[in-house]
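Consider the following assembly input.
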Amino acid sequence: MVTQSDIAKLAKVDRTSVSKILCGAQLEHFSDDVVEKVKSFAIRLGYKHRHFKNALKLGFLFPVGMDEALDGYTYAERTMAALLGASKVLEGSKHSLQIVNINYSNRTFDFDKVANTADVFIIWELTWEWADRFYAILKEKQKDFVVINRVSASFKDSYIIHESDEVYIKSAIDIFCKYGHSKIAGVFNDVEKTGRLSAMKEAFKQKGLEHSAQNVFSFHERDADGCRKTARLIAERGFTAVFVQSNDMNALDLVIELGKLGLRVPEDISVLGNHKKRSLPSLGLDLSSFETPWYEMGKRAAEFLIAGYSQSDCSKRITHEVLKQKFYEGNTIRGLSR
Amino acid sequence: MVTQSDIAKLAKVDRTSVSKILCGAQLEHFSDDVVEKVKSFAIRLGYKHRHFKNALKLGFLFPVGMDEALDGYTYAERTMAALLGASKVLEGSKHSLQIVNINYSNRTFDFDKVANTADVFIIWELTWEWADRFYAILKEKQKDFVVINRVSASFKDSYIIHESDEVYIKSAIDIFCKYGHSKIAGVFNDVEKTGRLSAMKEAFKQKGLEHSAQNVFSFHERDADGCRKTARLIAERGFTAVFVQSNDMNALDLVIELGKLGLRVPEDISVLGNHKKRSLPSLGLDLSSFETPWYEMGKRAAEFLIAGYSQSDCSKRITHEVLKQKFYEGNTIRGLSR
């Protein structure tokens, strides 16, 4: 049986302080370091204290600065959706939320400080190699975490993600084939990403379709020239169907560029987007796309972390969940007679 | 000097319970009603307890359901921005955040229950008449609140909002006049809203320009026909400049419809949007617009509420702040030689 005195000894504070800290009382009398140390030892020793376990601070860690959050096509939507999912779980509970907004591109944030901002973490797609240091710190502190949205194939810790690019590619090609298309192009923001090219090859092969570098295009969200060039090549090469893996707004950009070349959607070419967002009414179309379960990800991640927190050793719990994207049938895919 | 016994007497619980509740300790032993009652009496009596005052739960109440949050053009961006502003203030503090998402259109939410979800509230634009009941409940419970984004002219409680439509209209007309335009149209999603028409008249009059119903157009975000009709009338009536008050995505819709009629932006017609969002690269333009200080609103609201909470009587504090929108100069306004 672990006692508060055991924790006090390890943390080098008196027992009354341990009691107050674990009760969440008079916290203003203690430095953040001391609070952190006491909580950390309490978890490590498996100390059971109902109130402490009930007063969970759930950190929602996500990338991008304010400017980008407002500016990117879907950053705000996806983050809001996941946040709402997590909040739904916290509603009416004693738990609280801490939004932790880090500009990942800096790579210079104070891992230790960030790890101290919450008891457990929902982490948006922090899957770069340099982030391993952060995960090591979380584990050292025995703080449970779940990465959501996407992870690399080698990622071993807990994650709740949407289906992979490979699944999207296969689904897109399946759908187009079902509608009688065989001249299919794929558009990415970054085709070099692991698995995309080979997924294209594999999916084409399964359908008995010929695949080459001619089928694959890429341009980044703000690259007007790249989008224009892609539209021109798609027109020249006579594709009847194109899927845009990056997102719906990129797909709309492509639709506009195709329109400038006289190609109408879906009469001349069918288009399938990704990460459903509503279309511009002026384009006169309702983009067919896939809906991404961001709300559900946030919700399940929060549920997992809260469930784990009531157990004595949360560090050994691992979850690997892959949530399905859902096909949204708009009016931008035309059936070809065969 | 108010004591815990005074509170215990009023709340009809024992003194130890009052102590625990105000310390935030062992809260799981008490029903939400009891916790709420004790806290409420403590505030009403002006009881000073450092920890209690330090453990502030800040509710962020905003409208729209999940679907709309993802679907509307700027709902997610503006909400994220305000949330990030509020979170910034909470960072590293003992305070916590509670996102409270209500579908306002239902008008049926349980006001009392919502009021109990947090100690103080940042409220997104809840300024309809039926909402007065909610404000009355918050006041009764002596819970401080700030309404952000917009309020009606008659709203007397605390608000931190962006400049009014009237200011936007005047600024837009000022900018166009500075560039030598005199044939100016205004586009709204709802022109009937108080003050918009008279603000148009007034601003035109100040510049010595003629104003009539011919200058004013309106269509809603999803109304493709309305947008098309507006574009046609703008072309027919020979305007050289148009501002779109509703938002930048509506402005882009209008740009696309004008393009179908052969009108190029800014060569043939200048366009000014609102609530800056980046343009579609495929349109080959960087929309001139106004940036709305949503982040700043959330930040200041949280600062105000936290500052007030450390005082004994927060119910009498009122703030009325109007934050400026900032002109963003893109490339969609052309100077006319006079």
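The longest helix of chain B spans residues 75-90. Ask yourself how this observation constrains the way the partners meet.
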